[in-house]
Amino acid sequence: MRNAIIAGAGIAAAACWAGFQCYWPASQVWGRTFVGLEPGSRTLALTYDDGPNDPWTPRLLELLDRHSVKATFFLLGKFVAAKPGIGRVIAAAGHELGIHTWDHPNLIFASASEVRSQIERTRQIIYDTTGFRASLMRPPFGARTPMTLRAIRQLGLEPVMWNVTCYDWKRTSAERILAHVERQMRGGDVILLHDGGHLRMGADRSHSIEASDRILQRYTGEGYQFVTISEMMRRLGFPDARGLTAPGR
Q1: Which residues of 52-67 are buried (b: 16+ CB within 10 A; e: fewer)?
Q2: Which DSSP string do the residues of 151-171 spell out, in sequence order?
Q3: Cβ pair 208, 193 in contact under 8 A
Q4: Hey, which end of the chain has fewer CB within 10 Å, N or C?
C-alpha cells in the first residue's frame, strides 16, 4: 500500500510538473520558443495580444506613434475579419503582425489539424486584409505541447512567448502593471500586454494603454530601445526572422 501511495504521488507530481511546463512562458522543456535577448540588453519589445479591438487599438496606435515606437501585435483572426480597417491601420503604421489563432482556443486540447486550421485561417485573413505575411505565432494562454510547436514550425512560423507578464487581461490599474514590469525587468525582455479581450470586441484596455505610456516614458528615459520581435530575433541570428514585410510581398 505504501509503495502504491508513493508511486501515485510521484505520478501526480510528474503530471503537475508537465502541466506547469505547458503554460510557463519561459519554459523550453517542450521545445524552443523565443522569449527575448540575453539579460542586460538595452533592448525591449512591446507585444499586444487579442486585437484588433475597437476603440482601444486605435488609441494605442496613437500613443505608439507619439513615442515613435513599433510594436508586435498578435492578432485574432475573427477580430481582423470583424474590424479589417483597424488591421490595415496597424500594418500601415509599420507595426509587426503575428498570429494568435482565429478564436483563442487552448491548443493543448486541440488536434494537430485544428491547430493548423486555426493558424492558417488567421494567417490568410491577415494577408488578405493587410498584405502582411506573418511569420510569428503566439499560442493563446501561452499553452503549448510538443505537437503544438511542431505544427507551428511545419507551417513555417516561429513560436513567440514572453518573459514579462503584465496581468492586464483582468481588471487592474496602470500602476500595478508598471509594478509587474519593474519586478520582472532584466533587459532584453519581451513584454506581454493586451489591446483586446478574446471574448468580445470592445473589451476595456484603457489601463493597458496608460501603462504602455508609463513603460515607454520610464524605459526610454533610462536608455532602452523598443523594437519589434523580428528585430530582436535578427540580433540573435534567427534564420526565420523576416521582420516587417511590405504589403503585397
Answers
A1: bbbebbbebbebbeeb
A2: HHHHTT-EEB--SEE--TTSS
A3: yes
A4: N
CB 163 within 8 Å of CB 182: no
CB 206 within 8 A of CB 63: no
pLDDT digits (tens, 9 = 90+) for 75-94: 999 999 999 999 999 999 99
- Kindly report the backbone phi and psi dihedral angles of residue 131, in degrees, each rounded to the nearest multiple of 5, phi listed first: 80, 5
Cβ atoms of 216 and 67 closer than 8 Å:
yes
Return d(Cα 163, Cα 25) in angstroms, integer.
Answer: 6
Which residues are the active-site residues?
Answer: 49, 194
State the cell numbers at 125: 485573413
Radius of gyration in angstroms for the set of CA atoms belonging to the chain, rounded to a whole number: 18
Low-confidence ranges of the chain (pLDDT < 70): 1-20, 239-249
| DSSP letters for 190-246 | EEEEESSBTTBTT---HHHHHHHHHHHHHHHHTT-EE--HHHHHHHTT-TT------
Residues 131-181 pLDDT 10s: 999 999 999 999 999 999 999 999 999 999 999 999 999 999 999 999 999
Bond before 55 cis per omega within 30 degrees:
yes
Query: What is the CATH number assigned to the segment(s) 2-235?
Result: 3.20.20.370
Residues β-bridged to residue 165: 192
